[in-house]
Amino acid sequence: MKKILFALALIVCAKFVSAQAAWIEPDPTDVSKTVRIYVDLDKLDATKEATARLLADPGPFYMWTWSPAELPVGNPKVNGEGEKPWQNSNEILKLTKDDTKGPNVYYYDMIPTEFYEVAAAKVYEKGINFLVKPKNGGGYGDPDIKSEDLTIAVNPPKTDKGTLYPFPSVMLQDRLVAIVYDNTKELKTTMQNLADGDVLVYMKASVEDTATAVVTTIEPSKFLQLQNNPKLTMKKDASGKFKLYIIPDQFFHIPAGLILKDIEVTIRKRAWASGADQIDQRIKFKGGCQ
């Protein structure tokens, strides 16, 4: 039975990954270094007429990008060239096929700050927006041949994890993860210098049905009832950090066919009387599958 459930989990994880048409590696991203932007054509919206025409095209394919900045005519990296640029994509923007990622996965390597000629802060603020098209994208009276607009959020590297974080940073559904509350960094005076046994963690998991895409939540205990659930007491270590180790699948009793999207987490004292007895944030940690 366990082998069957594990196989189902792998199928569920594959469906979770398949929902993502475009992404960046590495993530989090240092945009002053070389990154790779991926797009999986099989995950585009084939119900759109322009996209259907793109998927029927043999390629090669090109990136057409406008954010965090659209480079002007005369720039060597301009999207298209000549009198009809949409019909003449710049060869510099040609995508490379990556068969190791899938049958229709393509990528483009760049240093975002150098490519877009902007500061790192603007890349993080705007993200990367682009579409995919063949050399001749139609237009000018002919039907367009292109993907839908694709947006990639670009996450900066974190140098300071803060007071509350998971380790590893992405909670994999079937893997051990530590929820860490670093009480030594707590700035709220009413939550400082807590003793072992004093710290309770509230968690609520959002899970998605792979068949219907319906998202529901699983809450082991309500916020005011945490003291009645021994599983939600964090253990203090010698460094002053409080930790709780979980395997999300088991901890939340996630039913087969559901995938973990994220977990909302906050911290309170065992003896809770008011807002002074809890941290001020409810943080959502990203979930995922192996």
**Strand-residue fraction?**
25-35%
For the residues shown, what is the average pLDDT? 90
C-alpha end-to-end distance:
20 Å
Strand neighbour order, sheet with most strands: 9-16-15-11-12
Shape: elongated
Overall structural domain count: 2
Q: Count of helical segments?
A: 5
Class per helix and strand makeup: alpha+beta
What is the number of strand segments? Answer: 16
Return Rg in Å. 23 Å
In the predicted model, the low-confidence regions spanning at least 5 consecutive residues are 1-19
Main beta sheet, described? 5 strands, mixed
Question: What helical percentage do the residues reach?
Answer: 10-25%
What is the helix/strand order? Answer: HEEHEEEHHEEEEEEEEEHEE
Could you give the topology of this structure?
Elements: H1 2-18, E1 22-25, E2 35-40, H2 49-56, E3 61-67, E4 96-97, E5 105-110, H3 112-116, H4 120-126, E6 128-134, E7 150-152, E8 164-167, E9 171-172, E10 177-182, E11 199-209, E12 215-218, E13 235-236, E14 241-246, H5 248-251, E15 258-269, E16 283-288
Parallel strand pairs: 9-16
Antiparallel strand pairs: 1-2, 2-5, 3-6, 4-5, 6-7, 8-10, 10-14, 11-12, 11-15, 13-14, 15-16
Structure description:
The protein has 290 residues and is an alpha+beta fold. It has 2 domains: 2-152, no CATH class; 164-288, Immunoglobulin-like, CATH 2.60.40. Helix content is 14%, strand content 30%. It is built from 5 helices and 16 strands. It has a 5-stranded mixed beta sheet with strand order 9-16-15-11-12. Strands 1-2-5-4 form a 4-stranded antiparallel beta sheet. The protein has a 4-stranded antiparallel beta sheet with strand order 8-10-14-13. A hairpin with a 5-residue loop joins strand 11 and strand 12 (215-218). The relative contact order is 0.16. Mean pLDDT is 90; it is low at 1-19.
